């Protein structure tokens, strides 16, 4: 058969030009939906994060602190790995801080943050133990598939371990970025006592939880999808309803703020008025207005005393607020205020 000498029609050319980008967009959208947990939970980043050890930590990041590795059993075949950090001063801790990490890295990457907090100038310095444990699929913890339900279960075990280890001092929850949303969602499921038919985990020891610090938290993962893809002509922002793990901190906070008198109280209900929000002014990942929106949801406009503290860290980016003097002052002041009421 002789080859055709006819040129492709204009419609065929237009179909190829329009269809190829549409096909690529459709393929990328499908991959984003199917592998979304690989994007949300980046325990593999940076490269080698799962294989690092204390021996790999630069000596200057361990100056003035003692770092102890801990391993928490979780079920028959699972475990959670983390660290407990304290000052070399050696005095008994007056409070314990549980750190909820962001979506990447491991506890060793946060050592400069902990070092800064533990080295606050006297006399404002408080003897602290900082407990930072990686959830599943992060660092040396069991490499199980991360899900919202699974990570909440992991942090309940971390909380139980901390309460057992420190039975007589206040516990402060400190979440950064995704960790902030995790802390909010977790405390919305906890109660000092049993709450009827409400799906809640109760333990009288939860009364020890006295503080909640949220640094650059987001309102929900769907909101973050739309923030990262603001262009309405791109299809990615419209994938928000397909998110598996929503981490809807905003709804949890609104529910806590609007709790009716006489209804059962969760830990979030109790902590909300006395929580602290730290917001980086130039956050390049979580829009500052999103963190402030969550802070506004935690405020009760009918009662000035029922309003958490919010502080904008001038000039700070998403990951470096801890380098500022404002961060050190606010963190130390907040912890000292909790100790004064303990």
UniProtKB/TrEMBL annotation:
Name-wise, this protein is Alpha/beta-hydrolase
Q: Give a yes or no for keyword Transmembrane helix in this entry.
A: yes
Q: Which UniProt keywords apply?
A: Membrane, Transmembrane, Transmembrane helix
Where in this chain does the record put each AB hydrolase-1 domain?
130-298
Spell out the Gene3D superfamilies in the cross-references: alpha/beta hydrolase
Example GO molecular function: palmitoyl-(protein) hydrolase activity
GO CC entries: membrane
The record's annotation in PANTHER family points to:
ALPHA/BETA HYDROLASE DOMAIN-CONTAINING PROTEIN, SUPERFAMILY HYDROLASE, PUTATIVE (AFU_ORTHOLOGUE AFUA_3G01760)-RELATED
């Amino acid at each position: 058969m002789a080859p055709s000498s006819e040129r492709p029609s204009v419609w065929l050319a237009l179909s190829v030009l329009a269809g190829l980008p549409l096909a690529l967009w459709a393929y990328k959208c499908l991959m984003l939906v199917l592998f979304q947990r690989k994007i949300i939970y980046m325990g593999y980043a940076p490269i080698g994060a799962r294989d690092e050890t204390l021996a790999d930590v630069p000596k200057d990041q361990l100056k003035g602190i003692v770092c102890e590795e801990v391993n928490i059993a979780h079920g028959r075949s699972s475990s959670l790995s983390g660290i407990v950090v304290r000052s070399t001063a050696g005095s008994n801790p007056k409070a314990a801080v549980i750190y909820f990490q962001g979506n990447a890295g491991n506890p060793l990457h946060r050592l400069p943050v902990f070092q800064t907090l533990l080295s606050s100038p006297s006399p404002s310095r408080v003897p602290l133990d900082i407990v930072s444990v990686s959830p599943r699929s992060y660092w040396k913890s069991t490499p199980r598939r991360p899900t919202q339900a699974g990570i909440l279960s992991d942090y309940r075990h971390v909380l139980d371990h901390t309460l057992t280890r420190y039975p007589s001092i206040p516990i402060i929850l400190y979440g950064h970025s995704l960790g902030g949303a995790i802390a909010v969602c977790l405390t919305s499921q906890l109660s000092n006592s049993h709450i009827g038919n409400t799906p809640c985990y109760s333990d009288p020891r939860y009364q020890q939880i006295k503080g909640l610090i949220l640094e650059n938290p987001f309102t929900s993962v769907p909101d973050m999808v739309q923030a990262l893809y603001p262009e309405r002509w791109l299809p990615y922002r419209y994938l928000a309803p397909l998110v598996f793990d929503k981490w809807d901190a905003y709804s949890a906070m609104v529910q806590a703020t609007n709790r009716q008198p006489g209804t059962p109280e969760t830990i979030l209900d109790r902590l909300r008025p006395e929580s602290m929000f730290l917001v980086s002014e130039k956050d390049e990942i979580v829009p500052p207005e999103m963190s402030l929106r969550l802070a506004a949801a935690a405020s009760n406009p009918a009662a000035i005393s029922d309003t958490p503290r919010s502080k904008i860290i001038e000039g700070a980016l998403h990951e470096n607020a801890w380098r500022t003097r404002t961060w050190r002052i606010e963190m130390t002041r907040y912890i000292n205020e909790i100790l004064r009421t303990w």
